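Project outcomes to date are best conveyed with an example. Our students and postdoctoral researchers have been running inverse folding experiments weekly, and each run begins with a structure described purely in C-alpha cells. The record below, which covers 303 residues, was selected by the lab manager from last quarter's runs and is presented without edits.
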C-alpha cells in the first residue's frame, strides 16, 4: 500500500517539475547571434538588445576597418548569425557580399541609413564639401566615422533597434524601451561634452589630427579638425611647411593620432613642428567613457 500511495506523489512531483521547465522557456532560449563591424557598434548593440543578443565584432582591437580581412573562424561564425550590422567602414565594400553568400538567411542592416556623409577632410589648403546621403554604405571619399557624434549615434541606434525588431518582433517593446533609455544617455553625454568644450575658456576651435577621424565630432561641437594625412597619404614637404606655419600661427602644440596608425611616423613630423603627440582612439570599445576622455584631451589642446 505504501508503494502504491508513493507512486501518485512521485508522478505529481515529476509533472510539477515539467510544468516549471515548460513555463520558463525564455531562460532556456539562446540569445540571438549578431555580428557588427567595429567595437563601438558592439557597445550600441548591447545597449539596445541587452541579454537578448550575443554580439560578435568583426574588426578586433588594434586592427583597422580600412584594410581588415576576416579570419576563417569569423567567416564560419557568420553562418550562425541572424543579423549583421554594417556601418559603412571601408572593408565592408569588399566583404559584405561575401558575408551574404556565407549566410543567405542573415539580415544585413545598414546602420548608417539616412545619415548624410561628409567628404573626408583634405589637407589644409584644400576645400571640402558634403556628400549627399545614399543607401550605399561605403562611398569612396566619404568619411565613415559617424559613430563619433552622439547626435548621429541616435540614428545608428534607431536603425539597430529596427533591425532587432524585424528579426525578433516578440521582444519589440524591450528593444524600444532600451532604445529610449540609450537615447537619454546620449543626450546626457552630449550635454556634458558641450558644457566642457564651451565653458568660455577655449582659446581656439581648431585641432590638428594625423588621420581625419573626428570630423563629425567637430561638426557637432563647433570645432574644426585639420588633418595631416588623407586617404593614406602623408603630407608632402610643401604641405609640412604650410602645416608648421599654420600650427605656429594658431598656437597648436599637439597632434592627435589614433593607435591603429604608426606613432613613430607622426612623432617624426611632430618634432619637425615642435609639437607633441596625443593618442585619440576612435575605435575604443568603451564608447561613452572614451568619447569623454577624448573630449577632455581636445579641451586641453584648445585651451
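After processing, the design step wrote out the following sequence:
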Amino acid at each position: 500500500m505504501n508503494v502504491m500511495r508513493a507512486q501518485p506523489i512521485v508522478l505529481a512531483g515529476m509533472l510539477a517539475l515539467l510544468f516549471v521547465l515548460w513555463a520558463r522557456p525564455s531562460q532556456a532560449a539562446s540569445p540571438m547571434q549578431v555580428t557588427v563591424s567595429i567595437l563601438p557598434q558592439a557597445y550600441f548593440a548591447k545597449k539596445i538588445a541587452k541579454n537578448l543578443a550575443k554580439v560578435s565584432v568583426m574588426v578586433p582591437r588594434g586592427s583597422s576597418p580600412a584594410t581588415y580581412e576576416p579570419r576563417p573562424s569569423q567567416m564560419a561564425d557568420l553562418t550562425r548569425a541572424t543579423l549583421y550590422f554594417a556601418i559603412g567602414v571601408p572593408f565592408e565594400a569588399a566583404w559584405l557580399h561575401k558575408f551574404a553568400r556565407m549566410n543567405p538567411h542573415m539580415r544585413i542592416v545598414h546602420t548608417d541609413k539616412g545619415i548624410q556623409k561628409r567628404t573626408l577632410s583634405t589637407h589644409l589648403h584644400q576645400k571640402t564639401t558634403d556628400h549627399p546621403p545614399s543607401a550605399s554604405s561605403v562611398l569612396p571619399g566619404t568619411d565613415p566615422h559617424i559613430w563619433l557624434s552622439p547626435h548621429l549615434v541616435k540614428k545608428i541606434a534607431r536603425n539597430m533597434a529596427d533591425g532587432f525588431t524585424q528579426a525578433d518582433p516578440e521582444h519589440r517593446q524591450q528593444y524600444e524601451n532600451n532604445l529610449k533609455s540609450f537615447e537619454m544617455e546620449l543626450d546626457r553625454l552630449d550635454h556634458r561634452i558641450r558644457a566642457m568644450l564651451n565653458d568660455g575658456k577655449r582659446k581656439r576651435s581648431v585641432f590638428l589630427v594625423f588621420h581625419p577621424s573626428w570630423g563629425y565630432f567637430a561638426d557637432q561641437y563647433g570645432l574644426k579638425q585639420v588633418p595631416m594625412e588623407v586617404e593614406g597619404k602623408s603630407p608632402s614637404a610643401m604641405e609640412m611647411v604650410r602645416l608648421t606655419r599654420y600650427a605656429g600661427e594658431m598656437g597648436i602644440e599637439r597632434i592627435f593620432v589614433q593607435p591603429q596608425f604608426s606613432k613613430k611616423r607622426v612623432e617624426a613630423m611632430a618634432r619637425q613642428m615642435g609639437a607633441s603627440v596625443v593618442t585619440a582612439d576612435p575605435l575604443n570599445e568603451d564608447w561613452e567613457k572614451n568619447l569623454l576622455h577624448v573630449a577632455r584631451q581636445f579641451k586641453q589642446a584648445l585651451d
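Residues 172-197 form the longest helix (26 residues). Residues 270 and 276 are 6 Å apart (CA to CA). The training component of this project remains on track.
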